[in-house]
Amino acid sequence: MFMNFRRIHKCQCVQLLTTGLVLCVVMVCWEELDHHMVSHMRSYTYRYLVNSYDFLNSSFAISTNYHHGNGGSNNVDGGLVNYPYLINHPGKCGGGGEDGESWDDVLLLLFVKSSPENFDRRQAIRDTWGNVSFVLSELRASVRLVFALGVHPDVGQKSRVQSQLLQEDRAYGDLIQLNFLDTFHNLTTKLILQFHWGHKYCPQARFLMSADDDIFVHMPNLVKYLRQLLSRQTGAKDLWVGHVHRGAPPIRRKESKYHVPYDLYPWPSYPDYTAGAGYVVSRDVAAKIYHATLLLNSSMYIDDVFMGICAKAMGVSPQEHVYFSGEGKAPYHPCIYDHMITSHGHATDVRSLWRAATDPTVSSSSKGFMGNLYCTAVKVMLLCFPYYQSTYPCMAAFI
């Protein structure tokens, strides 16, 4: 029996070339593979097996040489720095008791995080789901809406934009502005502003909601949900609800907007947190987060992660609600609108979505056995496929 050495050499060459090609692909794509596979496996292992975040209290505690502000009416104490108010409305929720006035009964304090130049987005919100007059007259609910913002970071545009903001506030009286640069890396400052302002000027609000200015809130459904919580025997306590991220790993890729270096956060997993696009906390949780911001160093510039750090330090855990959106838009369909609470990514279509979602005929589409069956089938088709997985989970189809 004779062996064909030429054929053997050819097979070996093909194997070597194939192996080399695979290794090259792995080397080129390793960073992506590490982020999407290795880091997530490490993070989930830490979250579900170790599940210890005791380091938070010591590693993020403000050092003893940190000095709080004087607590005056023009400053926000705690956090990174004391920034003076440029625009403020301390009487938005009624009196404070010192002058004999009583606080108004407020169901929801709604903070919308907005950039100074986003005039159109704020106006669209005022005209639709943030219309507090509509909420009061149609839903019989007392809601306070304010927009949280800093100053425009572009020196060339700062003066013009600030002048427009002052004019806008004279017309609507709903801007809360601090003197810090309104940039991505200052989002945590904006979060601190929300809880400090709420603690000082609207502590009686039963709930506080934080939302981005490109989010859509189905206010009738939200008010209904909050009232259901209040009607329970235990009342609305220990509530932090939204789209929950569990076992999320820090992003180490330097080109990413959400890059977090090891020296800022060396651990493989974040504490559980809700998507910052929109979440709700009860009054007692809002107070706990306020106190946490006084004790913890806010160097973590990803605001929803910092919220998770504060909550973990105070013993608060987030609760999942399947109709609070994640990072994507919810499907456009009446069967979705009937349960929708939030949807993310609506910078231009807020008005049309508001008209469609609050149309009186929406609820009729899911009434009765056949209507319910029809809507369940539609929601399965819309929610149980990967395209919409960043909004509502598949289980939402059966609720």
UniProtKB/TrEMBL annotation:
Domain of life: Eukaryota
Name used for this protein in its record: Uncharacterized protein
UniProt organism field: Scortum barcoo
